[in-house]
Amino acid sequence: MTAKPKPSPLFLGIDTGGTYTDAVLWSEAGGPNGKVLAKAKALTTRHDLAVGISGAVDAVLEMAGTDPAAIKLVSMSTTLATNALVEGQGGRVALVMIGFAEGDLARDGLKAALGTDPVVFCPGGHDVHGNAAKLDLSGLEAALPELEKSVSGFAVCAYFATRNPAHELSARNLIRDRTGLPVTASHELSAKLGGPRRALTTLLNARLISMIDRLVAATEGFLAARNIAAPLMVVRGDGALVSAAFARQRPIETILSGPAASLVGARHMTGLDDAVVSDIGGTTTDVAVLDKGRPRLDPEGATVGGFRTMVEAVAMRAFGLGGDSEVALEDGALNPRILLGPRRLVPLALAGLMHGEAVTSELERQLRAPNPGRMDGRLAVRTGVPERLAAGLTGAEAKLYELIGAVPQALDRLLTSNAQNATLNRLVSRGLVHVAGFTPSDAAHVLGRQANWDAAAARLGAELFARRRDGRGQFIAASPEAISERVLTALTRLSAEVILETAFAEDGLDGAATVAHALVQRAVDAHPGIARLSVALDRPVIGLGASAPLHYAGLAELVGNRCVVPEDTDVANALGAVVGQVRVSAEARVSQPKEGLFRVASGESVRDFNDEAAAIAAAEKDVRAIAAGRAKDAGTDNAEIEIASEFRVSTVEGQRMFIEAHVVAVASGRPRIAV
Hints:
This protein is 37% helix and 25% strand. It is built from 21 helices and 31 strands. A six-stranded mixed beta sheet has the order 3-2-1-4-9-10, with helices on both faces. Strands 11, 12, 13, 18, 25 and 26 form a six-stranded mixed beta sheet that branches. A five-stranded antiparallel beta sheet has the order 29-28-27-31-30. It starts with 9 loop residues before the first strand and ends in a 6-residue tail after the last strand.
């Protein structure tokens, strides 16, 4: 009797975006690229992420008629961390700087990123060879009782911690012992020099911990409730997979997670080796380049929300442009342009779907007024995050936060001064409050090109926006349809601009944004001027995102090449999440503090050797062991490890002089699956 062949294992991919949570069920069987068995979407529920996850995954399981026990691996990508940095959101954290001066805050955008969050300076740190200065943590110890009441975590960065992490470890242990709050130390995230930028990366990581922790906890809770006993993986910003536990400790590495997964998915779906990939979501448009079947990586570190981090990730440019972008008017112009983003609003159509009469009645009231108001079509509502995340509010912030509830309130009733508007913006940046308003998604509903939310609320918002006045005192549009067409045209035009800007930047051209804007303006202008300008990409555009078929329909003529929108473009991120590999690295540095002494700094250890060869061998052994351990923690049991060494030497009077060596181990393998 012939035994029945074992069924092919099933893989569940989830992508939690700013607006939608996507799910896809995929099988390795069914062809060289496997087969999508089912896909579904649900609204991302920021107050309780498990609701959106369960909505999408339950729909997929029902469509496929699948026993949850057949799922052997769950992999997740997310744009939550990227969106948080673009929108300036995140928990309030304390930054501990050891061995730095206050003037160092002015470097690499650290002061701007810090904002009003507290910072503590302590004497200490090390030199380039790992020799220690005197450490004094008394100031930190004295500040901890007050800080633990007002922050959600700590970021610790010490001078030259990548050459000796001892002082960071001391501060980390002190904070954990006294407060029990999460602590991120800079040496855990990067082995690169450049203290202020390493501090910036650590600060952002600490801010994101609670957000990613909630996402992982919500997903794990959902999987347990459905009896899905499969490992949970998360896509990192370079497209690699890591375990959920790994991602919880290093959430900064999930910035550009969603876009990185989309690149993997785009390559998988189209088979194109060379393309510009543009992924439009609710909050951002993320643009990157595929070369020879692999995404270009940015070795200098990912730039998101204007901050250059030390996170090696896909060379992705994230723009605050999406279906839920804030629609505004250019100030002071006779014929003002439509401006989009970078802030995300809750579309009025979505707010109307969720809150019904509470939204439409306020919009109708504003329409009955004889003159338009500057806050027309805007409402505020709490996001529903846990109350502990509202720690550290000022008196004005706390007072306004108390007035805002779970039902949207019109801003013209809620705010009584310009100062309160600034206060509201701070609550939004903390992720405590959403503002609802007119967006491209609403424009699409008005024109019948999108129909999943409340079209009546969208139309009311469009009417209110259309009766705003230009510099001559005239209404800016004759009808809701007219303003909606202008908004969607602006979104396509701006999409072309960000794609061309990315291409110019990848080519190393200065002034990429200005040139891209000028070229697109000439392309859409009925009177292009004396100088005829044109531009064409050398490769097609792959358009990703649920709204890509709508917004990219007229893109080809603006970028000079075809635009390919794959069949499963709406779940590219979720699909990309399940076809990737685990990949982690470990680094060691070998320096020569004095002639004949070779110092190895690897992981959290520093050791001295009297022989160069012995030091290099020890460094290679260390990074191999560290990479193997990280690979296991990241979710693979069968990692292949490659080691590369780079030497800096000089020649003096014909003699080779050792300066420094950089040893890197890269471990990669397929994630472990449930048996």
